[in-house]
Amino acid sequence: MSARTSLARIVGTPTNSAWAQVHQFASSDETKIISRGQLYAAFSLDLTSLPSVDIGHEVITRLNEEYYGDEGRDQPFSLLRRAVETVASEFSAVKLEIATCVLWRKYVYFCIWGQAGVRVYRDQKLVNILSGQEQKLAIASGSLNPQDLFFLTTSAFDKLIDSQTLTKMLGQFNGISELADNIVPLAHRASLPTLAAAILSPVTYTSEPETVGEEIVREEMVSQQLPAPPVAVKNVSKGSFFKDLLVKIALKLPDQVTTTTRFTPSGRKTAVSVGLLLLALFALSIGFGIKQKQEQEHRLSYSTQLTQAQSAYEESIVQKEVNSERSRELFLQAKQVADEL
Predict the structure, then answer these.
(1) What is the pLDDT of residues 236-251, one digit of tens each?
(2) Does residue 312 lie within any of the structural domains?
(3) CA distances for 145 relative to 8, 58, 105, 107, 121, angstroms
């Protein structure tokens, strides 16, 4: 089972030195979505030390590559943590905040970096799940409840709306879209370029394709199979007294016999003779090969002329009864070519 989710975005207006974004990730491989779930993230970048909006797009690309591009078979929780850690280390030159969420089957996984945060609204109560610290990572997981609302936020969102005000607003508006529409004007008036908030509502569950699900289960079962324990030789043999005795004797024998060969003077002479013979054969084969190559090159050099002479001679035979002069001319031409060979 996988969750079908509604998403509402709240993002501040970017500047040359600050940027924020909410992103829903996608993969061209549908099996990756089924096996790893749907990834959402809220980002913010303080670009004071390195002003470039392109860095934000690079962060999104790298997180997508690390999570969906990994070819390992780790569970989504481990993949998410490793992906966030990798991206944070690659962009350590800027102040980065990331709040991520993966909805997979009936589970939800969170991972944050920096001062980002995660809240859940359940049973008319807003609860902090993760509150980040600068340059630190935090993770959490749990079971999905279709009535939950998840908030992935950067630290600037807390400056705009505190938890008490947000709880009141949740009771006043119907649906996350209406809630977001009323918060966006406040965000723009506050001029908080690093403000980003993703509001998620996993409203329904959808079934996964059975064939893919069966394939994943089979892979997990295969990976969990353990090799059979080795069987001792002494436990294999059962039966008569003599058979047991033979097994005991066999167990005391060495695993392999080491043979040491000593070369006597006569043995050395034989080895030298064999070596000289092989060397002579090798030299002879080289000489024969060179000679054969030269003969082949020589044949190739006159093969064209020989073909011309043969063709002229055969045509002279044909022309003998028709045109004797032409026949004689062709014969002399063939003879001249043959004499030049």
Answers:
(1) 334 444 445 444 544 4
(2) yes
(3) 18, 33, 11, 9, 11
